[in-house]
Design goal:
By secondary structure, the protein is mainly α. It contains 13 helices and no strands.
Length: 353
């Protein structure tokens, strides 16, 4: 039996790290219990409300955090590195946009994989400095943790909400080639069985091996509870709402906790983008960077709108807006993960000293 940890939902500590981690748990637990209760009572949330929840979560709440991650990663770098970072980012972004344009079904498959890697990878690094990861002793175990936690984002909805998942997949692909998903001949029933069975095996392996290698510090117990919470959340909450609120309420909160827990970057890495002699000067620099970020995001969205033959698909407005934003966020997420982490092993977006 593991010992040494406070109650899983404890807020006794005033540490901002503990508050952020507990907040992410409480948020998903409340949504899971709430939607489960509504379902058992025969209540249904309209699709219009679900679509609005997705757009609010992904656009208004989560997008600013993505921009902040870039700022934090580039803030104290030398200019040469900043140029390489931006160049690599743009190269991958336009390459991925090109893939969607010429082969939207593989583009969708990559988008699903990126969402899983981003969620699982972010969780792995947050776990290391918040609840602990001493039960993950090898690289294969760490990869299992990424698959188990990140896989919940897409694998569970494929099994739990196949019709909705299929509908929005078709709309997303339809931005570039209506009917391409149906023409691909991918059988939904077989996909559910393969994804469900494969994901279940990964989760069992992750939790089983972690249990055998636990150190009694409570890290495995926290990991198991959070993994099961993610599975329950994506199984119970309608997929559109679940995905839309997962990133701001879980991923972003836990990345805030991770950043608060790690050491700040050394001041001598490069000139601080926010360095100024006065508070007003810092605020002005921050405002300028926000403007640059907003213009960059708008530019990518405009290019996607121009490249996609059917930028809102063939569905009603809100459905099309969700599909458009899903493609957009996937296009910017791939280089965000690859350049900001895999290709920047010194101080990537998930850097843990």
């Amino acid at each position: 039996m593991e010992t040494g940890t406070r109650s899983w939902l404890s807020v006794e500590s005033e540490s901002p790290v503990d508050i952020a981690v507990t907040g992410s748990r409480v948020a998903l637990l409340v949504l899971t219990v709430g939607f489960l209760g509504a379902s058992l009572s025969g209540l249904r949330v309209s699709m219009r409300a679900q679509l609005l929840a997705y757009l609010i979560g992904m656009v208004a709440l989560n997008l600013p955090h993505g921009g902040y991650e870039h700022l934090a990663n580039l803030r104290r770098r030398v200019n040469k590195f900043r140029l390489r970072y931006v160049a690599g980012y743009l190269l991958l972004l336009f390459a991925y946009l090109g893939l969607f344009a010429v082969a939207p079904v593989p583009g969708l498959a990559l988008a699903l994989a990126v969402a899983c890697v981003k969620g699982g990878g972010g969780d792995l690094h947050a776990m290391a400095v918040t609840t602990g990861d001493d039960h993950l002793r090898t690289l294969p175990q760490r990869l299992l943790a990424v698959a188990a936690r990140g896989g919940a984002v897409m694998a569970v909805p494929i099994v739990a909400s196949p019709a909705t998942f299929r509908t929005f997949s078709a709309i997303i692909v339809g931005l570039f080639d209506p009917g391409a998903l149906a023409a691909s001949g991918v059988p939904l029933g077989t996909t559910r069985v393969l994804v469900g069975g494969g994901y279940g095996a990964l989760v069992a392996a992750h939790l089983g091996v972690g249990f055998l290698r636990r150190q009694g510090t409570g890290s495995w117990l926290a990991d198991a509870a959070e993994t099961l919470l993610l599975i329950a959340y994506f199984a119970v909450v309608p997929v559109v709402v679940a995905v839309g609120l997962y990133f701001p309420l879980w991923y972003s909160l836990r990345q805030v906790a991770r950043e608060l827990a790690v050491e700040p970057a050394p001041a001598n890495e490069g000139a601080d983008l926010l360095a100024a002699e006065t508070t007003a000067g810092v605020a002005l620099r921050a405002w300028g960077l926000l403007v640059v970020g907003a213009l960059s995001v708008s530019g990518v969205a405009a290019i996607l709108w121009w490249v996609a033959p059917n930028p809102l698909g063939t569905a009603p407005l809100l459905y099309g807006a969700v599909a458009f934003w899903s493609v957009f966020i996937s296009i910017v997420a791939l280089p965000h993960v690859v350049v900001g982490s895999a290709l920047d092993r010194g101080r990537g977006i998930w850097h843990v000293p």
